[in-house]
Design brief:
With 197 residues, this protein is mainly alpha-helical. It has 2 domains: 10-121, no CATH class; 142-196, no CATH class. The chain has 8 helices and 2 strands, in the order H-H-H-E-E-H-H-H-H-H. The chain has a two-stranded antiparallel ribbon with strand order 1-2. Strand 1 and strand 2 form a beta hairpin. It starts with 8 loop residues before the first helix and ends with a helix.
Length: 197
Amino acid sequence: MFELQNFDVAAFQKKFNLDVRKLAGAEKITKELLRGLSRDVLTQLHTNEDIRPTNAVLRALTPLNQKVWIEFMKAFSGFKFDAANVSFTEKNKGTYGKARVASEEFLEDEGNNIWTWAAENVEVKAKEFTLDAVKKGMENFLKKADKNGFSRDDVLMAAISAGFTQADLIAAMGKLAQLAEQAPADAANAEQAQAAA
C-alpha cells in the first residue's frame, strides 16, 4: 500500500533531475532530427514524388510535432492531405508545380528547415480551458474506471482528493439541488410552449 510518509524526497530529487535532463535531451534530439529530416524528405519528395517517407515521419511524431509537420508539408509538398486518415495521399496536380518551386527556393538557403519555417508560419495555441472539456474528461475517466472495475464513488473520492474542500462540495451540492428544483419547472414551460405552438 502506498504511504506518503515513506516517500524518499532525496531519491525523488535525484531521479527527477535525471529524468528532466533525459526529457530535455530527447526533445533536443527530436528537434535536431526534424531539422535535417525536413530538408531531406522534402528533397526526396520532389526527386521521386514518393509520399511514403513523408507519412512515415508523420506517424512517428507526437501530436504537437505532427501539426507542425502537416502544415510544413502542406506548404511545400503539393500533395493532398487526408485529415480523416492523417496522411498525405496523392499529388495535387493543381498545386504541385507551385509547391515544388517554393520548396526549391526554400531549400536554396541551407539554414532553412521545419523550425525556421514554423517560427514564421505556425501559431501554436493552447487549448482553451472550458467546463465542457472538464465534463468530457470526467466522462472518459468514468468509462475507463468502469472498464477497469473501479466504482464511481472511488473515482469521485480520487477527484475530491485532488484538492476539493468541504466548502467546494457543499457549494456544488447546493447547485445540484437548484438544478433538480428547476428541472420540473423547465419541463412544464417546455410543454406549455409546445402546446401553444
